[in-house]
Amino acid sequence: MTHEQSDQERVESRAHLLPEEAAVGSDDPQAQAEAILAESDLRTADQQAAPGTVLEHRTSEQTVTPIEPPD
Q1: 21-59 burial by CB neighbour count: b if 16+ within 10 A, else e?
Q2: Is residue 25 part of a domain?
Q3: 8 A C-beta contact, residue 29 and residue 12
Q4: DSSP assignment letter at 13
Q5: Structurally, how many domains does the chain consist of?
């Protein structure tokens, strides 16, 4: 089995919609499966690629606009 065949098998397997996906439908399950698997492969190759995996170190002064006390 070639690498290309195994990728195609993965796509075909993932193209079967999950119950949650079937409930809302999909215009192109094959393309959806390809996109999901491509993102999964990226996350596997680079553990920092997943959203929310980078921890930012900031203080509250850097994230919150201070409220001025009333005069």
Answers
A1: eeeeeeeebeebbbeebeeeeeeeeeeeeeeeeeeeeee
A2: yes
A3: no
A4: H
A5: 1
